[in-house]
Amino acid sequence: MSTYPLAGPAQARELPPLSPMLAMIGSLPPPETEGEFAYETLWNGARTLVHLPADGTVRLVSATGLDTTSQYPELRALAGLLPAPEAVLDGEIVVLDDQGRPSVERLQQRMSLHHPAAVDRARQDLPAWMVIYDVLYLGEPVIQLPYTARRDLLDDLGLPAHGVIVPAAWPSMADEAMENSRREGFDGIVAKRFTSPYLPGRRTRDWIKIKHLAPAG
């Protein structure tokens, strides 16, 4: 039974209050359990839940619960990606460097801006992108579904568009994913257990953040 009651068709549905699921920092799963995970690129952006009430609006909520919609006006275009049903998506806001890789420095510059005029100028020089990698709500709560089912829902949405990135998931291929992220200039990968439900606000080993070791010197 759904933990969030759904309103009738004549009523506006209130999207559930949710907080992001968190990853543990660790190392690659051993060979005997490697096949229990999918592997995604580590983006190191600003964790954000995207609320799409299917009324032509979008609301961006930070990991600490702050409404950051006004800081990223270019991401209001997300409202047109899913005309229906209501949805809550999980991801990260990133700002890319000249090579198309996420830049922490550029993101920090963008996050520091709040005045509308400064934000408007920055959207030209430091445009924000939305990396979306999970679905929490799609007409009804889906957090109880395993990662594989939620990932299928995400892929079926057909979201990739200008300003939106849906990262690839590498099933059961830890070494390949790690090497690909190194080659592409990312900091590492996140291992996500196939069977794991989405646990709002929880940090568990169902998600493991694995970073590349800094070179000695």
UniProtKB/TrEMBL annotation:
<comment type="similarity">
    <text>Belongs to the ATP-dependent DNA ligase family.</text>
</comment>
<dbReference type="InterPro" id="IPR050191">
    <property type="entry name" value="ATP-dep_DNA_ligase"/>
</dbReference>
<feature type="domain" description="ATP-dependent DNA ligase family profile">
    <location>
        <begin position="121"/>
        <end position="211"/>
    </location>
</feature>
<dbReference type="Pfam" id="PF01068">
    <property type="entry name" value="DNA_ligase_A_M"/>
</dbReference>
<keyword id="KW-0436">Ligase</keyword>
<dbReference type="InterPro" id="IPR012310">
    <property type="entry name" value="DNA_ligase_ATP-dep_cent"/>
</dbReference>
<protein>
    <recommendedName>
        <fullName>ATP-dependent DNA ligase family profile domain-containing protein</fullName>
    </recommendedName>
</protein>
